[in-house]
Amino acid sequence: MQEFHAERARTLLNNAEEIFDGAAVQAAVRQVADKLNARFDRLDNAAFPLVLGVMGGAVVFTGNLLPQLRFPLEFDYIHVSRYGDDDQGGNVVWKVIPRPSVAGRIIIVLDDILDEGETLAQVKQRLLDMGAAEVVIAVFADKALKRSKPVKADIVGLSIPNKFVVGFGMDVYGYWRNLPGLWAIRPEDLKQR
Ligand SMILES: O=P(O)(O)OC[C@H]1O[C@H](OP(=O)(O)OP(=O)(O)O)[C@H](O)[C@@H]1O
Ligand code: HPA
């Protein structure tokens, strides 16, 4: 069974196209850090935001970004899933919900990708419903779709084409979250296209 997965993962990557290499990815993370630092690195420390990583896809973005933030912050995570092991989104499933202590705080939500926007729309609404003072959304990648999205990101690392991508935390069928660059899966290799 493990051999099947390893072989399938390799075939998917062999057919994929690298659309941003590791250096471009790191430059994008730096830009996100610069924008957050410009906004929150203030001597009065008035904000003291709570940074929430949306697991599991945000794990790599979060791990690369946090050490580049220069202002005092708290970190926590939530866990939300809409794609599971599929390449098309379904219902948003909450696996770890926000703690009640989000009330009254400025929250910086970090996620790997804003695709159709359903996940982050629900995340933002839930945080506001719980009394968050402000929700700032920073995504590593914003996918260009021809239709409008139910939520906008305040800060975007990379604008990417409308392709199913893997790498830097993003997966296809559970594979290739570990790639340092961003790769577009060949459409013929997707279950739903
Ligand atoms: O904008 P949307 O169309 O809602 O898609 C974006 C969401 O999809 C991915 O999560 P996924 O459900 O794949 O779970 P994962 O984080 O474990 O990969 C990604 O991490 C985003 O949270
Ligand atoms: O293009 C994508 N790749 C991986 N995960 C995703 N979740 C939403 N869109 C994507």
From TrEMBL:
The chain crosses the membrane at residues 46-66. Pfam families: Pribosyltran. GO terms for molecular function: glycosyltransferase activity. It catalyses: GMP + diphosphate = guanine + 5-phospho-alpha-D-ribose 1-diphosphate; IMP + diphosphate = hypoxanthine + 5-phospho-alpha-D-ribose 1-diphosphate. Its EC number is 2.4.2.8. It comes from the Bacteria. The keyword Iron does not apply. Signal peptide: none annotated. Keywords: Glycosyltransferase, Membrane, Transferase, Transmembrane, Transmembrane helix. Residues 16-171 form the Phosphoribosyltransferase domain. The keyword Iron-sulfur does not apply. This is Hypoxanthine-guanine phosphoribosyltransferase. It comes from Massilia mucilaginosa.
